[in-house]
Structures are given as C-alpha cells and as structure tokens.
C-alpha cells in the first residue's frame, strides 16, 4: 500500500480488531486494518498543547494528521491536509487525516458553526508550523548549515541556495517530536503558498463513486446484533404493555425492554426489521402538541422565559414614532428536519463500564462524556470512533442512535448495530426551530433608515446536554438542556440605520426537541431582514441593489454586491418587474446580501425565477453568488459547499415543513416531507473572492443564509406578491397570487 | 430456508433467505458484503439503494429476493473497478460530484441505466431521469454535469 494512494477508508477503524469484510469486487477478502497499527498511534498524546497530538511524520515521508473536527462530506480532510502540508512543505496527497476518534485525536470541540478550519485547521497548522521549525533545526545539524538557510520542498529539506538535502521521513521517521505547540512559530507567507489555494481533489470521492467508502452504516463486528428501536406512538408516551408472542414466529428475534425503551434485536437484520413492524405494543397518550397550522399563533402566545435585547443602538422604539414613513411585516419559518438521506446508524460494543462507540456524530469527544455520564460508564474507558455518516447538517439523530446502541449493548453484553428507519429519522431527529419575526422600520423623508426594530420569538436556550431519547425512555437521570445553536444572530440589518433594536422573546417550551440545523436560526433571520429590506426598497421605488449599496460602506460588502450584480447582468430598476409576463410564467429577479454573524463571511446572491401563475409553482432558473470568506484553502471544495448550501436551502424554502397533528409529527417520509428534486435544480454560478491576506473564515453554512430572501424577493419582483411564510409551496403561492393569506 | 440463484456482478451466486419477501438490499449488504448499496428509506422513495436488474434500474429496498431468482444484478461494485472505473464513476470523480456521497452509488446506477437507453440526453432528459433519486447535500448541479460528461465520454 503506497501512502499516496492510501484512502482514509482503507484504514477502517476497528478499535484494535482486525476486520475482514467480503467484497464481491474481485472476490477477494478486503483487509482493513485498525488505525492503531501505525506504530506512532499507540499511546500517542491527545493533549492539544503537544505537536505529536496533531501529527506524526513517518519514515516513508508520509504524514498522519489527527483532528478532533470531522469531515461530514464537507471536504474538511483535504483542506486540513492542505493547511498542514503548506507548513510542512509536503504535498497534501501525502497526508492522511484521521478525524474524530477520541482515542487518537485531540479534543477541539464539536464540528459546528463553521469552525472546522478556523479552529480545527488552524490548530493543526500551528502544530505543523512548530514541527517545521523543529525539522529545520534537526536538518541544520545534519547538513551543517544554519536553519535560516534551509527550506522544505516536497518533503525534502535542502539549502535555499541549492545542494543536497535530507528527507523529513529520514530525519524524524515515526519518532515523536515531543514538543509543545509554539503559538509564535512563524506561518508560511500567503504570497508563497504552494498547497493552500489549490483545488486538490477530495480523497474520499473516488471511493464514494465505487461504493467502497466505509460509512458507519457499513461497519460490522463479529457477533454483532442488528437492532431496531420501537419509538413511542407519540412524544411523551409511556409503554403500557408488549406482546412478545406477536414476533414469536420470526427466527432468532429477541425483544428488549428497559422501562419505556423498546427494541428488537437479531443476528439477521431483516428479521429485526420484520419484528419491528410486527411487534404489538400499547402506549399511553403523549403530551399534546400544537398543530402545524396553529404553530405561528402558538409561538406568539406561548409563555416566555425572558425578553432579551441582543442588539441595541440608539433608541429604536422612540425613533419609530418619528419616522416619515413606517413599515411593518411578520415572517414565519416552520420546524425543519435535518432529514439525512441515510437514516442514523451507530454501533456500540460496551463491556462493563467501558467500550467503543462507532458514530457519525459531529461531536465525538462530547459524546464520550455525555454517554459516560448518562449510562454510568467511565469516560477514560470509552472510545468514540468517528465514521462517516450520511450528511448531517448539524446535530441530526446520530447521538440518539448512538445512545440506543449503547443502552442495548450494555443491556445485552454484545455488540449492537442500531439502524434508524426513515420514519425514525423524520419523526425523531431533533429539529431546527420554528421562528417568528416581527420587523418594523421608519424612514425619514430622504429615505434614511432612522429606526429598525426586529422582534423574534425563539425557543429558550436552557443549559445542559440535550436529553437522549433512549435514556429518557429507560428513565435514566440526565440533563434536559434545550439548545439549537446561535439562533438569535443576524436579526439586525447590515445597513446604516440610526437606531436599531433586536429583541428576543425566549419562549419557555418547545413542542419538539431541537438542535443545531445548518446556520442555526440565521437563515430565517436573514430571510426576514433581507425580505424586509427589499420591501423598503420597493416602497421607496429604488432598485434593490442600489438601495443596499447606498447603505453600506464596507468595501468587502460592496464588492460581493457589485460582483453578484455584474455576473447576474442586473439592470437597475425598482421591483416589481413591469414586464414580468412570459407566456404562462411571471419572471423576476431578486437579491440578498448578508455578513455571516455580522462578523464573518460576506455573501451576496441573486436569483432569477419563473412563477407559474396558474399552478403557483416557483421555478428557480439560476443563482449567482459572490462569496468572500477571506483566504480560500481549496477553491473547488469550497465551491461544492456553496453550491450545496444554495440548493439545500432552496429546498428548505420551497418545500420543507415538519408537520404536526395534536400528538405527533406527521411528516415522516419523503412523500410527506418533500425536498427539492433534479427537475427543479437551477444553474448555479459561484464567484469566489479569495483574500489571502485575510484570515480564513468557515464556509460550511454561511451561503445558506441569503437564499430564502433572494428567492422571496425574486418572487415579489415577478408577481408583486410578498411571501413571508416558508415553505413557498405551489399551493401557498397560488393562494397568495389569488390575493389570499400567505399563511 | 429457500435458496435463490442469480447472477451478481457477472458471477453466478446463491442466497439463502427464510423469507421470500426479504428485500434484495439486505441480501446484498449482509450476505455479499456489498455495502455500496445504501439503505435510505425502505419505501422506494429516495433511490440510494438502486441496482440494475437485467440492465434496468430497480430499488433493491423494495425488490423481494424471490423476484431476483434467475436475473442478473449489477451493483456499484460491479460497474467498474479501481483500475478500470466506469465512465460515470470517472465523470463523477472528475466533477467532484459528491459531498457526503450517500446517494452517489444510487445516482450512478440510475444514470447508467439511463445512458444505456439514451446515449445523447438533453439536460432536461437527464433531470427527469434522476427525478426519483434524492440528494440532500444539494450536489445536483455537479451530478448533472457529471452525467453529461459521461454521456460525452
């Protein structure tokens, strides 16, 4: 196996066990070795202050990088390899990245909030920069030249002036550097970058195209049982009785009950699937839920924990009284699901108070602590190994699936694989919250925004870990924290406004369990702010791009707007489009701008839509997005992320709403929770603005945030009708076009 | 326990199942270790489990094993090899047409059946052909480029 062709997934993580899996490809058994077979892995440090925690240089000149951040299909591994390779002076292709294994990787916090590179990558880069200095010093002795006269190119240290050198693998080969990370170790100058900034292909893609990439769903252990968990009929229901004889005819099926936790297990996966469908169980009623069509009203009237002004500049409330023209509008975003394409899966092998969990969690280190606490395990005896999952876009049901597996494995004393069903995934993944926003503004006679007031109704963020479904069902003591991420950001306009207030009404209860869903809260907040900005521009009869440009001063903001408008072919005029009619379609264009968290990426996005006035169907024809996230590490991988952000959020805006009746989630498959399909896929053009002199900013989610507003603004331009409630289903648009309520 | 004999990626194989209704998906994954075939919904709604049966794209999650007897099944693992990938596998790699990749194998199998029938598709035809396959990461534009590229290869 040559390191340059070594796929990360060739190194199947088996916690020390040798796994032999049968592959029909060539009919040869495929050996996958444990990660611990690298001599540098055994007993390696995990302390983030140590260089050896982050990287190992092998005798063959290859490098292993260890990071606590994980690649959830986002290209993090190649980007981290590039950042390390740049400092070490070796090609990214010679670096193998191991991510999210608590036994091998330092804890760098969970993978969220687009911190994969800004923190995860930056830590690795600093460790690599420290290693570079150490390697140069070692080589200086070996070559009898001052370190300042040496450089590293393609893994070889040689004099800047030329002459023979020494390979880094030869210098250090598999030995520890035993160094503290030097926060002052000099970084390579961006102007000299040779590895960062290149579109190096992601190493995982060929395997994904050949069906060889190993997901957590594919992981097996000898003696492993397949499990299906039977969830209550509705949230809060308890188990009254189970009729085990109802599955008696099935081969080798066992029913497992721990208080209200109910599961079936079998060596035969299909037997477990059949048993889950056949098992007769009686449940109590659960807690009442607000129906979907009542949810906006429920949200506005539900008891609040407290009110919090998260932005206060001047006195917006007083200034609202004094404006010449006043505007107000209400926007609503429904519950949405992560809706991973592959339902969550996890494998656990628990023995006594320790064991190993294989999970696609975006926070494996956090999981080790939380699982240990809840299930009475010793954290130092628990290892969580990250394996790729289906895209999770935040905290999907993966932690719950892992808890299911831990509880079952602990109870049965055998390795257990839990595979969620489609209905589990849609019904029980923690959701992105519903969001209600009232926005008001006042303008003076000259069109200056003298007051802006955003009020948001958001679920309260209670401290503590999110409760695990299995632990609640098993009636174990645990935290019942309520967190959905930084959901109150981007509620203020990025434009000049004299007086601004953003007031959050933190609603005490949430009908459904919540978690971080990509760009938490900010998609809905930008939807409201940027739709409302468009409403102000339309009321003033000013072109929407011009309206924004004249209220921005930051050159980077103006740059993304100008580049988007130029690439789109934007012709200045106010909305709505006076010549919208094209046959059966009404055609229009919209724009939105935002700065992520008001402190990070600058993004502008323009869209062209056609609205079928007979059916209400909205067809997005093309999207143009200019994106400035500072330094770009891998342009193609970044573009892939941005394209995904755009298309996924179009799906969320056009189609997605978790529906509820009075007792349960009723959108439990792809028919009742439709997402965007290929015939709706628009042309997408991404313009990357690379600023090597600026710090890199995370880019896994920012481009999601202007999408809904750009779309709503385009629909308004086409039709003159303002959509303020997501999703823009054909039925809802048709009603709105007919002059009915948009809610 | 009944035995079902069929061709799998060019070889004659037999699978044992106590239930004639057992979906081919579980047989492929658990008896033959063909993990490229992915469970997505078990309802025939998403396309992640797509394989070819006698050259036609079928959902292995809703194809009972008894219906497979005597047929020829091709999975992503049988479409190409590392040394000699199928033109779709090459095109998907060249376009980097994957994020999480969970849908990729099903996409490629659906596209393989489609291109076998429609050698020179329009973009709209390709979009319609893939309408039954879901991608959650939003990689649609790249997947469309990849299929178009493969068609021209």
Unreliably modeled segments of chain B = none
User: Of all protein chain pairs, which has the greatest interface, and how many residues does each chain bring to it?
Assistant: A-B, 71 and 67 residues
Q: What is the name of the CATH architecture of the largest domain in chain B?
A: Roll
Question: Which structural category fits the helices and strands of chain A?
Answer: alpha+beta
**Quick check: average pLDDT of chain B?**
97
Q: How would you explain this protein's 3D organization?
A:
The complex is a heterodimer of chains A (743) and B (153). With 743 residues, chain A is an alpha+beta fold. Chain A has four domains: 40-196, Aldehyde Oxidoreductase, domain 4, CATH 3.30.365; 217-286 and 338-428, 2-Layer Sandwich (Aldehyde Oxidoreductase, domain 4), CATH 3.30.365.10; 292-335 and 431-507, Aldehyde Oxidoreductase, domain 4; 536-737, Aldehyde oxidase/xanthine dehydrogenase, molybdopterin binding domain (Aldehyde Oxidoreductase, domain 4). Chain B has two domains: 2-79, Beta-grasp domain (Ubiquitin-like (UB roll)); 87-152, [2Fe-2S]-binding domain (DNA polymerase, domain 1, Orthogonal Bundle). Chain B is 35% helix and 16% strand. Chain B has helices at residues 24-31, 76-79, 87-94, 104-117, 123-129, 140-152, and strands at residues 2-8, 11-17, 50-53, 56-59, 72-74. A five-stranded mixed beta sheet of chain B has the order 2-1-5-3-4, with helices on both faces. In chain B, strand 3 and strand 4 form a beta hairpin. In chain B, helix 3 packs across helix 6. The model of chain B has no long low-confidence stretch (mean pLDDT 97). Chains A and B meet through helix 5, helix 6 and helix 16 of A and helix 1, helix 2, helix 3, helix 4 and helix 5 of B.
């Amino acid at each position: 196996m040559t390191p340059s062709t070594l796929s990360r997934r060739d190194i199947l993580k088996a916690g020390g066990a040798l796994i032999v899996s049968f592959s029909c490809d060539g009919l040869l058994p495929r050996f996958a070795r444990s990660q611990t077979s690298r001599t540098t892995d055994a007993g390696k440090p995990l302390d983030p202050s140590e260089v050896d925690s982050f990287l190992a240089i092998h005798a063959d000149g290859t490098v292993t990088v260890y990071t606590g951040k994980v690649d959830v299909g986002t290209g993090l591994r190649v980007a981290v390899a590039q950042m390390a390779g740049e400092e070490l002076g070796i090609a990214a292709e010679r670096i193998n990245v191991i991510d999210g294994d608590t036994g091998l990787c330092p804890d760098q916090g969970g993978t969220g909030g687009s911190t994969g590179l800004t923190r995860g990558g930056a830590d690795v880069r600093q460790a690599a920069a420290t290693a570079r200095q150490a390697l140069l010093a070692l080589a200086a002795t070996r070559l009898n030249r001052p370190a300042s006269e040496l450089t590293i190119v393609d893994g070889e240290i040689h004099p800047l002036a030329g002459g023979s050198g020494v390979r880094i693998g030869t210098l250090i080969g598999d030995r520890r550097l035993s160094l503290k990370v030097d926060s002052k170790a000099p970084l390579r100058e961006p102007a000299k970058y040779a590895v960062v900034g290149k579109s190096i292909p992601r190493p995982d893609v060929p395997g994904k195209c050949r069906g060889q990439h190993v997901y957590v769903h594919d992981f097996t252990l000898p003696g492993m049982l397949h499990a299906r968990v039977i969830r209550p009929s509705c949230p809060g229901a308890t188990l009254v009785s189970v009729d085990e004889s109802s599955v008696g005819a099935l081969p080798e099926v066992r029913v497992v009950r721990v208080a209200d936790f109910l599961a079936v297990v079998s060596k035969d996966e299909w037997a477990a699937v059949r048993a889950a469908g056949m098992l007769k169980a009686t449940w109590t009623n659960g807690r009442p839920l607000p129906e979907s069509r009542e949810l906006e009203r429920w949200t506005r009237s539900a008891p609040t924990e407290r009110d919090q002004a998260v932005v206060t500049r001047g006195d917006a409330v007083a200034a609202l009284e004094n404006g010449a023209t006043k505007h107000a509008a209400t926007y609503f975003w429904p519950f949405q699901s992560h809706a991973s394409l592959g339902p969550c899966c996890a494998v656990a092998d628990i023995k006594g108070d320790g064991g190993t969990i294989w999970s696609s969690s975006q926070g494996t280190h956090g999981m080790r602590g939380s699982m240990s606490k809840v299930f009475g395990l010793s954290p130092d005896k628990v290892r969580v190994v990250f394996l790729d999952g289906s895209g999770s876009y935040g905290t999907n049901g993966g932690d719950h699936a892992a808890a299911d597996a831990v509880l079952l494995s602990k109870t049965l004393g055998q390795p257990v694989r839990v595979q969620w069903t489609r209905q589990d995934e849609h019904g029980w993944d923690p959701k992105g919250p519903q969001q209600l926003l009232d926005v008001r503004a006042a303008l003076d006679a000259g069109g200056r925004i003298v007051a802006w007031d955003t009020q948001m109704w958001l679920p309260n963020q209670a401290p503590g870990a999110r409760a695990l479904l299995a632990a609640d069902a098993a009636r174990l003591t645990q935290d019942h924290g309520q967190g959905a991420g930084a959901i109150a950001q981007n509620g203020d306009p990025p434009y000049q406004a004299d007086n601004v207030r953003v007031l959050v009404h933190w609603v005490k209860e949430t009908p459904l369990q919540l978690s971080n869903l990509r760009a938490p809260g900010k998609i809905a907040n930008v939807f409201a702010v940027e739709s409302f900005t468009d409403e102000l521009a339309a009321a003033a009869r000013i072109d929407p791009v011009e309206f924004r440009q004249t209220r921005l001063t930051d050159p980077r903001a103006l740059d993304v707007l100008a580049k988007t408008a130029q690439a789109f072919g934007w012709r200045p005029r106010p909305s709505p489009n006076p010549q919208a009619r094209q046959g059966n379609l009404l055609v229009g264009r919209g724009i939105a701008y935002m700065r992520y968290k008001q402190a990070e990426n600058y993004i502008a996005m323009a869209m062209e839509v056609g609205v079928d006035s007979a059916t209400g169907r909205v067809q997005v024809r093309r999207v143009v997005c200019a994106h400035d996230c500072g330094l770009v590490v891998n342009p193609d991988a970044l573009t892939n992320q941005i394209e995904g952000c755009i298309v996924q959020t179009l799906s969320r805006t056009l189609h997605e709403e978790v529906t509820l009746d009075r007792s349960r989630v009723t959108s439990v498959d792809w028919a009742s929770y439709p997402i965007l399909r290929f015939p709706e896929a628009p042309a997408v053009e991404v313009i990357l603005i690379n600023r090597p002199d600026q710090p890199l900013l995370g880019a896994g989610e920012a481009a999601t945030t202007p999408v809904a507003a750009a779309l709503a603004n385009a629909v308004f331009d086409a039709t003159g009708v303002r959509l303020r409630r997501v999703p823009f289903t054909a039925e809802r648009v048709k009603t709105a076009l007919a002059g009915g309520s948009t809610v | 326990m009944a035995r079902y004999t069929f061709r799998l990626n060019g070889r004659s194989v037999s699978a044992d199942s106590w239930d004639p209704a057992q979906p081919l998906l579980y047989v492929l994954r658990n008896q033959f270790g063909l993990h490229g075939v992915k469970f997505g919904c078990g309802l025939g709604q998403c396309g992640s489990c797509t394989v070819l049966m006698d050259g036609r794209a079928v959902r292995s999650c809703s194809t009972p094993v008894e219906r497979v007897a005597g047929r020829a099944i091709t999975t992503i693992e049988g479409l190409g090899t590392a040394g000699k990938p199928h033109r779709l596998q090459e095109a998907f790699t060249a376009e980097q047409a994957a994020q999480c990749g969970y849908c990729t194998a099903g996409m490629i199998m659906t596209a393989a059946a489609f291109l076998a029938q429609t050698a020179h598709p329009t973009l709209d035809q390709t979009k319609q052909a893939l309408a039954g396959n879901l991608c959650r990461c939003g990689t649609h534009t790249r997947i469309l480029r990849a299929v178009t590229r493969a068609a021209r290869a």
